[in-house]
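The record is kept unedited without comment:

——
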Amino acid sequence: MSLQPYVNKRVLVITADGRTLTGDLLSCDQLTNLVLGHTVERIIRPSDDPEPSTEVSHGLYLIRGENVAICGLVDEDLDGQIDWTQVRGGVIGGVKHV
């Protein structure tokens, strides 16, 4: 499936090492290399961690296609209603290449 329909829209990317990134998809190619603008990394902490979950701004961000596990559109209205510092969850494991 091509990601071209997602260009200039807000996407969420989960990387092969388990990071969660959101940003505006500026460009992509046939190898799934992605260029994101206004990128924010969401660091979701487990419920037993005393530190709050955080969002780290990265700005312009390039993700190599081999590191993309999932890419999907973000519902911006729903996303804007969530206080991401209050969200807790389990750690997403990395991708195992066989």
In short: The chain has a mean pLDDT of 93. The CA atoms of residues 18 and 93 lie 6 Å apart. Strands lie at 10-15, 20-28, 34-43, 54-63, 68-73.
